[in-house]
Design a protein that fits this description.
Blueprint lengths: L1 H18 L4 E7 L2 E7 L2 E5 L4 E7 L3 H6 L4 E6 L5 H9 L13 E3 L5 E3 L4 E12 L3 E13 L9 H4 L9
Antiparallel strand pairs: 1-2, 1-5, 3-4, 4-9, 5-8, 6-7, 8-9
């Protein structure tokens, strides 16, 4: 029976790579601790009311900080912002304050907002769902900003080669 799942895993991985979804950086703050990570599992899940779902890996620092947070900030990255994606995707917040290596400012609810992001929104955490090695965090968008229209966003294919700061 285990042989039957191997082809679907291969096909599923190919499917996900071909879909080439946008990646985002999620930041949060709780009890004076800031955290942020690159997220590949994120999407709008409702139009009315507007809802957005973010998958946070249970292995990373952002998950632990977000567990006590009331809100998250979700940032789009421009296709040319691979260094920022590498900072938030390949470095661990366990031993590094990522925010000392990029420009940011305090935003609504004290959330760290990445200054270079062409777009961002903050969202109130409504629910958390256990999805296995990730937890889905359901957000109600509360405020945000887009600069310069519709950017060519950074996609999964551009970051697939990055070594994660933690195993997922």
């Amino acid at each position: 029976m285990s042989g039957a799942t191997e082809p679907i895993q291969e096909y599923f991985d190919e499917f996900v790579a071909a879909a080439d979804h946008p990646v985002v950086v999620v930041t949060t703050e709780s009890a004076g601790r800031r955290a942020g990570c690159l997220v590949g599992f994120a999407t709008q899940v409702s139009i009315d009311p507007r809802r957005y779902l973010v998958g946070l890996s249970k292995a990373n620092n952002t998950f632990r900080v977000a567990a006590d947070a009331a809100a998250l900030a979700v940032h789009l990255l421009d296709a040319g912002q691979l260094p920022l994606a590498r900072l938030f995707g390949s470095e661990s917040g366990d031993g590094l304050d990522k925010f000392t290596h990029c420009e940011w400012h305090p935003g609504p609810d004290g959330l760290p907002i990445l200054s270079a992001a062409p777009g961002w929104f903050t969202g109130k955490i409504l629910e958390r769902y256990d999805f296995g090695d990730h937890v889905g965090v359901l957000l109600e968008p509360t405020t945000g900003q887009m600069r310069g229209g519709h950017p060519a966003v950074l996609r999964y294919g551009a970051v697939a080669h990055l070594t994660p700061g933690h195993p997922s």
